[in-house]
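Hi R.,

Here's the chain you asked about this morning:
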Amino acid sequence: MIVIDAASPTPPYEQLRAQLARQIQDRSLAVGTRLPTIRRLAADLGLAVNTVGRAYRELEEAGLIETRGRAGSFVSAAGDQALEQARRAAFDYAAVIARVGIDPTQAIRIVEAALGSAPTP
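And the predicted structure, written out as tokens:
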């Protein structure tokens, strides 16, 4: 179930993207699951079509979903690969932080700052 909080400072497309990504990663949405069309999900959630389209594009760029033309958008098996790539990067980062002696709390702030300033695909 997707819930968009209109009062949240987080933009609706990001709320949608994050919730779908979480459902894909925790396997609530299994590989191969067909997602609702952009228009249908936009209508169901009371969002603009472009808002849902942006969330889908970002999920596709992250490898979590794939679009198969007129057949629709589906949860991708590549999502497992993207998650594994992120895990490897996190382990590598943790090793660097330990090696250079940066406090874990500071290391997390560095990551949060990097994520906040990352260009939006």
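Strands lie at 65-67, 73-75.

Let me know if you need anything else.
M.
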